[in-house]
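Please, structure for the following, as tokens.
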Amino acid sequence: MAFNSKCLWLLVVYFVLTANGFAREEQKALVEGPILLLPSVNAVQRYDDNIFSSAQGEQNSFVQVVNLALTTLIESNSNEFELGYNFEAAFYRDSSADDYFDHFLLGDAKYIVNEEGLLHLRVNYAKTHEDRGTGLSQGFDPLLDLELDAPDKYRSFVLLANYEYGTRDSLGQVVFNLDLRDKKYINHLEQTNSNDRQNVHGTVSFYYQVAPATRLLLETSVNVTDYANERPASPSLNNRSLNYLLGATWDNTEIVTTKVKIGYLEKTFAHRQRDQFSAFSWQAEIHLSPLSYSHFNLKTDRYDEETNGGGDFIDVKQVSFDWTHQWREQFETLLGVLYKNEEYKNANRDERYAQINLELRYHASPWLTLTFDVKEANQDSNLDRLEFDRSIYSLEAKVTI
């Protein structure tokens, strides 16, 4: 293990050994007053039997992950502000080229404009990476693709703005959402810089209450994607997506909450050589809590996603289910299932991805949570090099103060 890895793990061990006493002595000071400091550290030991999601030449490895975070919460006159920094490092025992050091910055503000208006702003900056075998390097073969000697790295900036006029109990409510994203790759530029892009996504939703627990909704959204660098000898991927949705929400009791939206999706490209696309679209969510300590979530949707390997874009249809149950005060489990179909339009590529994961969480104390996680994934594709099976086993210790 590299020297930097040893130093970080010594820091984690020290933090864990001293956190209990520190929490007992200092927790009262941390929670008093308008400013709250929340440091935390996560240490994960993971075994991955196919770290590159490869169809052949699978590479397995133990992976050690350290995550250090510091969050500052400020409350003022019912308004909430948050600043955070997160550092994550990973060390692969059998593939040191895939070690990484990621940095994340967060700013969040919830501001009550008046009795009817609530403004929520969120800013994220990340200097991070895509594991080899994901993102632009899907289908990576460690025995053949020798030129890709490290993960793709990129910087991203995200600005989210949400404004709600009216409340859930009002006869009518209007919700505005703005999502600005900028992504820029910083290595392997000959292969990656044509994927640098900016996204502007805006949504307006109108809710109208027709019964005490039922609201109708009308929603429209537009997403504009602008690529910074043109692909050589390839029509521009600059595009615009429009989505029109009509639906309803039911908040019948504290036990069941449902939201269903159906509509029409249309995608057009700046270059005429790329085909216009239109199709039926949907979003549906059901949240069920038959007991105060048992929660079920079912979600399905259809959306368009930018391509990462040929074609014009990806037509995504997915369904997910998860169940969280607290068996005792200190012990809970999470079962999650995901199925996703990705069809690359104007390309001979169609994939079906399935994943199941089980988490066992033990809250050993107010400051220490232990988690054991098992994840099984499978992907079928009409391209043999993109098919894979993958199993990941993780043991995590999370310390918070």
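The radius of gyration is 23 Å. The first strand starts at residue 35 and ends at 48.
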